[in-house]
Amino acid sequence: MLGNFTYCNPTKLYFGRDALNGLNEELPKYGKNVLLVYGGGSIKKNGIYDKVMEILKAHNKVVFEDVGVMPNPTVDKLYEGIERAKKANADLILAVGGGSVCDYAKALSVSVYCNEDPWDKYFLTFEDVDNKIIPVGCVLTMVGTGSEMNGGTVITNIEQRLKIGHVFNENVFPKFSILNPEFSMTLPKYQMIAGIFDIMSHILEQYLSGEDDNTSDYVMEGLMRSLIHSSLIAVEDPHDYQARSNIMWLATWALNTFVAKGKTTDWEVHMIGQAVGAYTNATHGMTLSAVTLPYFKFILPYGLDKFKRYALNVWNVSAAGKTDMEIAEEGLVEMESWMRKIGLVMNIKDLGVTESMIEGIVKSTLIMQGGYKVLTSDDVRKIVKESFKK
Ligand code: NZQ
Ligand code: ZN
Asked: Can you say how many angstroms the Cα of residue 63 is from the centroid of all Cα atoms in its chain?
């Protein structure tokens, strides 16, 4: 582990079938006004809403609701939420939903008492919070983003065609998160699969950087092997509790800052995927799957040793009689076959991208510095065009 770093993760997790009982321990720590934040209504259909409300009532909380957080939450929704949270004088924001709801709750938590425009401050100029933060708790219902145990919040500005993430410090992490794998069982299969790839992508964005011998890489190889194994079971039988619970736990560890330690990290797949998302509003994990292989094939020569290691240690490619390049490429062939098997979207055309959007997507893509190749705009264009091919 070269370099210096600090590690702190203040989010308390309650995991398993009984996890919701954790709310009974957490609620007494906060004042009486709770702003309950949720999405388009799935929690009402699957009964999670009633279960949460029952516990809130048992603790005599005054519950205000902020409903209709959309997938890929928008800045307009955030402005609306700020007014609601102010009226509620919220002591706690309780997010019940997926990454979008958890992300939105965090964005809200730093924006309610912000005297400037939160879009400008947090998402355009990436400033830190210097005002009061409302504590956030999460009850997770969709697995993938890791939002339940990190400071990330991704907001879309439809007008500006920008989808931007701000990763806040530990003071913005959820104070607690409830992880009951059963709560994710009602997810449509498409969402489950998108979440699985989101997890894979988070791991790879961190794994595919650096050349040193780093414990984080060994941990990530184990996480990826477990994810591949459980994903194949979950796709066959989405009700397999063991597979779904492994995937839930994996998702949290893939992006709670632990495996990033000692790594420069890449995140270019996410930057291209987010630009695609800004133009299509497509499901996050699918935007990543559609651009990943064209990106990996493009950067492979620059990160050959790591791609070879990935092929050998994650995809069990045999090295016998092969060049490093052949081994590395075979790893990507194995990866592609897994991606197709679990049913991922493999090109951006299938997400609604048209030829006329390509230039805008290139412009909206932020260029990162930590991967094996710092892309030029031309490089991004090549990758986006390759992702557009059938
Ligand atoms: O709105 P509801 O009714 O809740 O329906 C949601 C939504 O339509 C549905 N859903 C969630 N749980 C369900 C369910 N349907 C049935 N049963 C359940 N148990 O699933 C749909 C998608 O939910 P969403 O929260 O949008 O998905 P996800 O968790 O993938 O979150 C995506 C957002 O997170 C951001 C993405 O950019 C995107 O905006 N990310 C956040 C990150 C972070 N905080 O670190 C990192 C990620 O890379 C990602 O960028
Ligand atoms: Zn992601």
From this structure: 28
Burial track 188-210 (b if 16+ CB lie within 10 A, e otherwise): eeebbbbbbbbbbbbbbbbbbbb
The string of pLDDT tens digits covering residues 277-313 is 999 999 999 999 999 999 999 999 999 999 999 999 9
Phi–psi pair at 82, nearest 5 degrees: -60, -45
The residue whose C-alpha atom lies closest to atom 30 belonging to ligand 1 is 99
Residues 236-284 pLDDT 10s: 999 999 999 999 999 999 999 999 999 999 999 999 999 999 999 999 9
Rounded CA Rg of the chain: 21
Give the distance (Å) from ligand 2 centre to CA of residue 322.
Answer: 33
CB 74 less than 6 A from any atom of ligand 1? no
Nearest to 76 by CA among 118, 34, 37, 39: 118
How far, in Å, from the CA of 162 to the mean position of ligand 1?
Answer: 18
CB 64 within 8 A of CB 34: yes
Ligand 1 pocket: which of 48, 100, 180, 274 to mutate (most atoms <8 Å of CB)? 100
Q: Is 172 in the pocket of ligand 1 (CB under 6 A)?
A: no
User: What is the average per-residue pLDDT within 352-377?
Assistant: 97
Q: What is the pTM of this model?
A: 0.97
Q: Is 323 helix (H, G, I), strand (E, B) or coil?
A: coil
Provide CB contacts within 8 A for 218, sequence distance 6+. none
pLDDT reported for residue 3: 84
Question: CA-based angle 208:212:215, to the nearest 5?
Answer: 80
- DSSP assigned state of 330: H
Atom number, ligand 1, closest to the C-alpha of residue 142: 12
